[in-house]
Design goal:
2 domains, 102 residues
């Protein structure tokens, strides 16, 4: 009976060892894939850095931000003019009205 128990334990150990080896292979494959992705990301950053160094960096987002900045400047001018107009109208309406002479 001790022998069958020992054989079962040995069989379980072998089975677990095989499962562990499969998991290790899966892990190695995942690490290889991750390494490839990191390499491509590093390459992308290097290329972006080279473009920035050479001054060939043109970002559509940068153009949009410049456009928004110009629009904001125009809005500020318009709001300032409107504020000035409203203040002038208030000062005129605050002045006492002339008395009617009959």
């Amino acid at each position: 009976m001790a022998r069958t128990s020992s054989a079962k334990i040995m069989e379980k150990l072998i089975e677990n060892n095989i499962l562990l080896q499969h998991k290790i292979v899966d892990l190695v494959d995942s690490i290889k894939e991750l390494s490839k992705k990191v390499d491509s990301l590093v390459t992308l950053f290097k290329e972006a850095g080279e473009h920035i160094k050479t001054g060939k960096y043109e970002d559509p987002l940068l153009h949009k931000l410049d456009s928004l900045l110009e629009q904001n400047k125009n809005l500020i001018k318009a709001i300032s003019m409107l504020e000035k107009y409203v203040k002038e109208r208030e000062s005129v309406s605050i002045l006492p009205k002339p008395l009617k002479t009959e």
